[in-house]
Design goal:
Keywords: Nitrogen fixation. The chain contains 2 helices and no strands. It is mainly α. It has a single domain, classed as Orthogonal Bundle (Helix Hairpins), CATH 1.10.287.
Length: 65
């Protein structure tokens, strides 16, 4: 597998994970005030995944993919 193909696969995986994290955060917000104590952990996970996705997309673009 080439580097570009590996980066594309990583972007697809991270995109799916980030979308799920976004939905988890959305679901948590709809249930408030129940589960309010989970906000920092769920938000941090979502933030981390979107940061990783942004970095992977930049790497893919730099690699010409």
């Amino acid at each position: 597998m080439s580097d570009v193909e590996a980066l594309k696969a990583e972007v697809r995986t991270l995109s799916a994970q980030a979308t799920q994290a976004k939905m988890d955060l959305h679901d948590l917000s709809e249930d408030l005030p129940l589960g309010w104590e989970k906000i920092p952990a769920v938000a941090a996970s979502c933030h981390d995944l979107y940061a990783r996705l942004t970095q992977a997309r930049a790497a893919l673009k730099a690699a010409g993919g």
